[in-house]
Amino acid sequence: MKREAEDWIQLCYDPRFAQRCGEKLTKLFAEHLERLQTKEKDVQDWVTPSANVAHASKFFVKSSFNGSETQQSLTDLSGHCLAKFAELVALCLEKSQGLHHPLCAGHQVPAVPPLAAWFDALTSLTNQVQGVYEMGPWSVSVERAMLNAVGEEIGFTAGEFGSLVTSGGSLANLTALLAARKSRFPEVWRQGFSGLNAAPVVVVHQDAHYCIDRAVGVMGIGTEHLVRVPVDEQRRMKVPCLEEILLDLKRRKVPVLAVVSVAGSTACGAFDSLRDVSRVCRKFDVWLHVDAAHGGGLKFSKRYKDRVDGLELADSVVVDAHKMLFVPAVCALLFFKDPSHQFIAFDQEAPYLFDPSEPSLASYDNAVVTLECTKRASAIGMWGVWSIFGPQFFEAMIDRVLEIARQFYLMLNDTEGIEVWGEPSCNIVLFRCIVDQGSSGGFSDGNDFQLLIRRRLLETGVGYLTQTKLNDKIYLRATIMNPMIIQEDLLQMLHEVRCAATAVAANQ
Fold it and tell me: Residue 434 in 3-state DSSP?
């Protein structure tokens, strides 16, 4: 058994075997991509969670080492493992959700350009992590270069802002609020909130992402200390209401940790008037944080950048590159207008990590500025694409998906039996289906009806939409994250939705 185990280990690290696996993977993925783009394959093969878990569990083997006296040659072993590898890769591709399918318009997850994914694979192959600079010096440098470039696109002054990459918008938003807490209440890290005369509040956009609620819960502020600002008919923060709220809090001597505005809300893609929000926050000397996880990328577009005008005025900004900059998940970018704020979220020492003999490297040690220590390098995909095509690539992608969303909106708006919610501000389109029951009387148009339509699309695999709720009404939600969609695909999506609606109505 010892000899057999050594053969397996040798094979796993054999460069030629690695090459053969890589060639097999790229071939299988290319075939998978073509099947999705031609719609030969459905968006997904829907299976219940328990069935999928049971299916995945069948592939485990109890032991690779049989202890037999007859040893396989390395050539035979290599062939066996390559065949098994190909089988498992094909299974993973078949079972995965088809984000590259033209009728997949669900969550804010992009159909990633394969080129970006190949660059991103380098991170996994070389296992670059970033607790300290010396653990991944090139990947840390790539991330810093990307942050500098994106920060300047946002409008921050070169060399005069702070920034970091972290794993997802939820963690980035939490880190921003931790920095705001340290800035406003420097003693809280060590003493907690017990020393304050009054409990602080966070003032938030009414439709702020649920991760803001999580953040204030994690921070010990409590979700009951979230003060929500009403929105207008386009779901933008009402700036006069924000001013009234801050004035009332000031009069009552209630400390404000931060104001959280949005640029591309999750529910419908709404953008706050950031210059007006910033003006009010400056008037009351309050930290302004903008959750631009979804919409911040619009800064790359000459056509649409006005929708995030004033983003650079915020004290902190989150932009998810794994959303509208189309790189693999997860890659969240966090920016601070004041570069010193990059280092204030956490107040700890770890002598086993940080090398006092090279203090100049400390500003490149990510464990100082992120909640993560063994943080995966995640910006190389974006760096690779930018280095080949330039920032115009991101502009073209953004312009394309916003144009597709508008085409879909116009198509829906001209379709009988479809109720559309407003013109899209971004790449998110909301609508409801209405089916006339004819002689049976009445219409099928309620909230449960919309949810059943979505469920039918999901389970049949012919399309994928999500749902959201505005003013107590459920809407089907199409998020266009695939620039390869054409008008024919939109027509087919509408057809599938109407067929699903008819089928659901017939069963009610």
Answer: coil
Backbone CA torsion sign across 154, 155, 156, 157 = positive
pLDDT digits (tens, 9 = 90+) for 486-498: 999 999 999 999 9
Domains, the chain, in order of start with CATH, read 2-57+69-90 (no CATH), 128-389 (3.40.640.10), 393-506 (3.90.1150.10)
Quote the CA–CA distance of 316 and 176 in Å, as a whole number.
6
Is pLDDT above 70 for 438?
no
Give the CA distances from residue 59 to residues 8, 21, 68, 87, in Å, rounded to whole numbers and listed in that order.
Answer: 18, 19, 22, 10
| Separation of alpha carbons 175 and 334, rounded Å | 8
441 pLDDT more than 60: no
What are the tokens at 163?
């920034």
Q: How far apart are CA 172 and CA 317, in angstroms?
A: 9
The whole-angstrom separation of Cα 174 and Cα 194 is 21
Got the DSSP string for 436-465? E-GGG-SEE-SHHHHHHHHHHHHHHTS-B-
Residue 356 has pLDDT above 80, yes or no: no
In this structure, the number of other CB atoms found within 10 A of the CB of residue 250 comes to 14
Whether residue 405 contacts residue 429, with contact meaning beta carbons closer than 8 Å, is answered with: yes
Report the pLDDT value the prediction gives residue 347, as an integer from 0 to 100. 78
Cα 157 to Cα 332: distance, rounded to the nearest angstrom: 20
Of the candidates 242, 249, 248, the residue with the CA atom closest to the CA atom of residue 198: 249
DSSP assignment string, 273-287: -HHHHHHHHHHTT--
